From TrEMBL:
This is DUF2147 domain-containing protein. PANTHER family: BLL5882 PROTEIN, BLR1215 PROTEIN. It holds the Pfam family DUF2147. Residues 2-104 form the DUF2147 domain. The lineage of its organism: Bacteria, Pseudomonadati, Pseudomonadota, Betaproteobacteria, Burkholderiales. It comes from Sphaerotilus natans subsp. natans DSM 6575.
């Protein structure tokens, strides 16, 4: 994943797929302009901003699961001095979701 920030808005694109069987995977189940686009290079996080109440928490955007083509609300929080990023995709309230931890690669 490559996370970028422009004008206070964060986004993330898939930069590399580690499973050799999925190197040429496409987002076949996506329903927007990402449909049938290669997963490598695909923007899966959009519109995330720093929270007004907690600047260490980023939220307000969406995350795409390229395996099922569904989008979810997203909340992200840097931890360990930015070495890791807790990414929570959810429906409705953050309690109804799943968290992944992304680790920074130097």
């Amino acid at each position: 994943m490559r996370i970028t920030e422009a004008g206070g808005v964060f986004s993330a694109k898939v930069e590399k797929v580690f499973d050799p069987a999925k190197q040429d995977a496409r987002c076949e189940k996506c329903s927007d302009e990402r449909k049938d686009q290669p997963v490598v290079g695909l923007s899966i996080v959009r519109g995330v901003k720093a929270s007004a109440s907690d600047p260490t928490l980023w939220d307000g955007g969406e995350i795409l699961d390229p395996n099922n083509g569904k989008t979810y609300k997203v909340r992200m929080k840097p931890v360990d001095g930015g070495r890791r990023l807790e990414v929570r995709g959810y429906i409705g309230a953050p309690l109804l979701g799943r968290t992944q931890t992304w680790v920074r690669v130097d």
